[in-house]
Design a protein that fits this description.
Elements (H helix, E strand, L loop, with lengths): L9 E4 L3 H4 L1 H5 L4 E7 L2 H4 L2 H11 L3 E8 L5 H13 L4 E6 L1 H13 L21 E5 L11 E6 L4 E6 L7 E4 L9 H19 L6 H15 L2 H6 L4 H21 L3 H13 L3 H17 L3 H10 L5 H12 L7 H11 L14 H12 L2
Parallel strand pairs: 1-8, 2-3, 2-4, 4-5, 5-8
Antiparallel strand pairs: 6-7
The structure holds NADP nicotinamide-adenine-dinucleotide phosphate and fe (iii) ion (FE).
Fe (iii) ion (FE) binds next to helix 7.
């Protein structure tokens, strides 16, 4: 047996965990940049709690609330200029994957001069501002990953900056912030978390620890399928989804994602389909593709979700996601050409060809 496991983020979970653990923030610096989206943190209580915690610690802060979904390179450079102008020495992220990923890039760029054209080339140094993350969606697991996924217009897709220095120091998990999530965002993000667990389990970079986390994550999410469909989620059930999405992040921190994410990025880039939804549309067909060569892996995954077949799994995703968008054969051809170049294609347990990717899009969208 030979493997490596690295996930250095302190995880603090529970109601009011930000205020109860404010001492952890005190060690991060004197002045924070709070990176967040335009609205939600102001109404879900996360911004208020964070301000209270920082004030009680006598720490200063500035707020950068300009992160939109699928953050752009422009947005992170703008945030970096704001961070430098204000002399902050640590970063707090409040929000879904978009503010969290933007915050990681800002933390990096605040310490290292990386020109825009070299941002996606990697090979970063070690300097980064310390980060504290508060996820307010239960989906991406970005609070425990070393990835910052940004819109890459030059490549017409989304590309990940990946470095061990991008792990946050601490993640605060409080399900109460999620009460205000809409049905769509709740479902799409839960499906993203499920996708991380499933893809991580079907990655050739998985190890025994990541598999254990992945199987636990999918078990927990599958128990919420009915509640997700009916959109009747208590705070406790939302906390379970948050726990599972953090597990999903811990999984992909080891295993990476696979073809589902590579293919989904085109659906987001060209069709503005939400990230989790894009993965969910593709997931069942990808499992059928893997099943042909690795039926035993699919069998265990179904057993953990208490499902009898992939057809049942596909039916649940269809019911959660509703009517699919239209994609033409020409579009799918372009998306396949782009997706096959993504690094995460190489993580698949069964590596697909470009023709396989096209066939997967065809099976999903039926053009
Ligand atoms: P998101 O883009 O961060 O947020 C989606 C929407 O939800 C926004 O309109 C946001 O509003 C709103 N929202 C957030 N929290 C809310 C709350 N508690 N109550 C009400 N509304 C709330 O969506 P996401 O799915 O969490 O993140 C997607 C991004 O994460 C993508 O860019 C994806 O590529 C990336 N991702 C990263 C990783 C990783 O490992 N780093 C893994 C998977 C995906 P506001 O804008 O007003 O806040
Ligand atoms: Fe994802």
């Amino acid at each position: 047996m030979k493997f490596q496991y690295y996930m250095p983020t302190l995880i603090l979970m529970g109601e009011n965990c930000v205020l109860e653990n404010r001492a952890v923030l005190a060690g991060l610096g004197k002045k924070a940049l709070i990176v967040t989206g335009r609205n939600s943190a102001k109404t879900n209580g996360s911004l208020e709690d964070m301000k209270k915690a920082l004030m009680a610690n006598e720490q200063e802060y500035e707020v950068f609330d300009k992160v939109v979904s699928n953050p752009t390179v422009d947005c992170v450079y703008e945030g970096t200029s704001f961070a430098k102008e204000n002399g902050v020495d640590f970063i707090v992220a409040l929000g879904g994957g978009s503010p969290m990923d933007a915050a990681k890039a800002i933390a990096l760029l605040s310490c290292q001069d990386i020109p825009r054209e070299k941002l996606f080339l990697g090979g970063f140094g070690d300097k980064v501002l310390p980060m504290a993350f508060v996820p307010t969606t239960a989906g991406t697991g970005s609070e425990v990953t070393q990835y910052s996924i940004l819109t890459n217009d030059a490549a017409k897709t989304k590309t990940s900056l990946a470095s061990p220095v991008l792990f946050p120091k601490v993640a605060f998990l409080d399900g109460k912030y999620m009460k205000s999530l809409s049905r769509n965002v709740t479902i799409n993000t839960a499906v993203d978390a499920l996708s991380h667990c499933v893809e991580g389990y079907l990655s050739n970079k998985a190890n025994g620890i990541s598999d254990a986390l992945a199987l636990e994550g999918m078990t927990v999410i599958a128990k919420q399928f009915d509640n997700l469909k009916a959109f009747t989620l208590s705070t406790d059930e939302r906390s379970k989804l948050l726990y599972a999405s953090t597990l999903g992040g811990m999984v992909i921190a080891q295993s990476g994602t696979t073809a589902v994410h590579s293919m989904g990025y085109s659906l987001t880039y060209f069709k503005s389909i939400d990230h989790g939804r894009a993965n969910g549309l593709l997931l069942a067909e990808f499992l059928k593709f893997i099943q042909k060569e690795k039926p035993e892996k699919i069998e265990l995954l179904l057993e953990k979700m208490r499902l009898s077949s992939l057809a049942e799994f596909a039916g649940i995703l269809d019911a959660l996601l509703g009517e699919k968008e239209a994609v033409t054969a020409e579009e799918a051809k372009l998306y396949s050409t782009i997706a096959i170049q993504a690094k995460n294609i190489g993580n698949c347990l069964v590596i697909p060809t470009e023709q396989d990717l096209f066939a997967l899009y065809k099976a999903v969208f039926g053009f």
